[in-house]
């Protein structure tokens, strides 16, 4: 496969992911993977479709911590399917591909970069609300590779412990992010205090408050403190996420609460922060109804909608999100899409009344599209090559849909 084809495949995968969050640490042993796993589980528990990518190539621990160590992966000749945990958490790790838990990965930088790129481009992630990346500690090959491969990442969550020896390395990690124009979403202070099980008095095993002070000094957000709890160790060894096994504990509540700023990440605004370099590239928000990841033939009865943001300056996709449509009803979908800021709808088939309602809401419609891949359809439209046939959807009971929120009439 040529490099342009590889880059195109990578872009296609990333365009279907709404938010990309990297979990970094300047120093090993601070609980970075614990934070990454519990953050991904918390986002999934909030009803989001989440991918968890473990790029700690020399010490992959995510499969062990989720209880899926040694599980087989499946896929085709040129792609691989991630392991699915529950209903909406997809996981990929080099740990799945090792012959045994004792096998050592002895790779240099270029090979690492290639493997991480494959994990993004060749894994069938599909549409995701969030991709959480667990990166190894430090500022070496793996963090640099993932930051370069995902230039539009929302930012990094940085994990530290309170003592100075860890904070020194975390400062370097923040400098690393700034040099790569990677936003710092916040600092998490792990192992912050410990309640004695005998007397109940707090004990600062590794100190306390150093992470918050460092965050203030460096001018980055502070997410919160996670107290030391020995059960975090046992649940990780047992393959049970702590926020599920012990959600009512202080540590469990804090691990769950750290998802709040990630869930509050704003949608991507086209051209935000800069004036458009050129005009006339068309609508800035595109809605596509999908069923099982493919463009739906029935606009008003699609399982979900993919929303693509288009940058006005470059006329390229700047981000995407997957949304659940509201309940069916006359004119509901057009009003909902209008409220979401959509200005173009691409569909396989759509009823005439739905088309008229969308038009009245200021939403252009391209229907009868034969391309099944949503990202491919968006690229074709941006290139002026997307052909539509004005096809109306048909549910085998007369011409047109005759029902459904987007299609016009209520059932």
Detailed description of the structure:
The chain is an alpha/beta fold and 411 residues long. It has two domains: 3-263, Rossmann fold (3-Layer(aba) Sandwich), CATH 3.40.50; 270-411, Dinitrogenase iron-molybdenum cofactor biosynthesis domain (Nucleotidyltransferase, domain 5). It is built from 14 helices and 16 strands. It has helices at 3-15, 32-45, 62-65, 109-121, 141-149, 164-179, 210-218, 230-238, 242-245, 250-257, 260-263, 332-339, 352-360, 374-382; strands at 17-25, 50-54, 83-85, 89-93, 128-134, 155-160, 184-190, 194-195, 202-203, 222-226, 285-291, 294-295, 304-310, 317-323, 344-346, 364-366. The strands form three sheets. An eight-stranded mixed sheet has the order 3-4-2-5-1-6-7-10, with helices on both faces. A hairpin with a 3-residue loop joins β3 (83-85) and β4. The termini are far apart. The model is unreliable at 268-280 and 394-411 (pLDDT under 50).
User: pLDDT average, as an integer?
Assistant: 79
Which class best fits the helix and strand makeup? alpha/beta
Query: What is the 3D shape?
Result: elongated
CATH architecture assignment name of the largest domain? 3-Layer(aba) Sandwich
The CATH topology assignment of the largest domain is Rossmann fold
Number-wise, the strands total 16
Distance between the termini: 49 Å
Beta-strand proportion: 15-25%
Low-confidence spans: pLDDT under 50, at least 5 residues? 268-280, 394-411
Helical residues, percent: 25-40%
Computed CA radius of gyration, to the nearest angstrom: 23 Å
Which class of the largest domain in CATH terms? Alpha Beta
User: Biggest β-sheet: count, sense, barrel?
Assistant: 8 strands, mixed
Number of helices, where a helix is a run of at least 4 consecutive DSSP H or I residues: 14
């Amino acid at each position: 496969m040529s490099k342009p084809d590889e880059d195109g495949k990578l872009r296609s995968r990333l365009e279907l992911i709404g938010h990309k969050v990297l979990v970094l640490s300047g120093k090993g042993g601070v609980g970075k993977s614990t934070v990454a796993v519990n953050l991904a589980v918390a986002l999934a528990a909030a009803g989001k479709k989440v991918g968890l990518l473990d790029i700690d190539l020399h010490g992959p621990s995510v499969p062990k911590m989720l209880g899926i160590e040694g599980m087989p992966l499946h896929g085709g000749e040129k792609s691989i399917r991630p392991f699915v945990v529950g209903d909406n958490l997809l996981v990929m790790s080099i740990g799945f591909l090792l012959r045994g838990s004792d096998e050592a990965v002895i790779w240099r930088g270029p090979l690492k970069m290639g493997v991480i790129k494959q994990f993004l481009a060749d894994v069938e992630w599909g549409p995701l609300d969030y991709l959480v990346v667990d990166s190894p500690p430090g500022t070496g090959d793996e963090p640099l590779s993932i930051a370069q491969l995902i230039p539009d990442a929302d930012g990094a969550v940085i994990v530290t412990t309170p003592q100075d020896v860890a904070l020194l390395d975390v400062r370097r990690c923040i400098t690393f992010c700034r040099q790569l124009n990677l936003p710092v979403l916040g600092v998490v202070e792990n192992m912050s205090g410990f309640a004695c099980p005998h007397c109940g008095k707090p004990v600062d095993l590794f100190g306390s408050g150093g992470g918050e002070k460092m965050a203030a000094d460096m001018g980055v957000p502070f997410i919160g403190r996670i107290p030391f709890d020995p059960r975090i160790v046992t649940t990780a060894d047992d393959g049970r996420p702590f926020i599920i096994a012990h959600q009512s504990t202080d540590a469990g509540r804090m691990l769950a609460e750290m998802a709040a700023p990630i869930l509050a990440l704003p949608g991507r605004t086209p051209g935000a922060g800069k004036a458009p370099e050129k005009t006339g590239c068309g609508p800035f928000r595109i809605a596509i109804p999908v069923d099982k990841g493919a463009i739906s033939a029935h606009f008003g009865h699609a399982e979900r909608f993919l929303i693509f943001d288009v940058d006005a300056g470059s006329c390229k996709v700047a981000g995407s999100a997957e949304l659940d449509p509201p309940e069916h009803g006359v004119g509901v979908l057009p009003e909902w899409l209008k409220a979401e800021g959509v200005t173009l709808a691409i569909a396989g088939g759509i009823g005439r009344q739905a088309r008229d309602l969308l038009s009245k809401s200021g939403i252009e419609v391209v229907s009868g599209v034969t391309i099944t891949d949503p990202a491919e359809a968006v690229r074709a439209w941006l290139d002026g090559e997307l052909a539509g046939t004005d096809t109306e959807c048909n549910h085998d009971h007369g011409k047109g849909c005759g029902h459904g929120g987007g299609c016009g009439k209520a059932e």
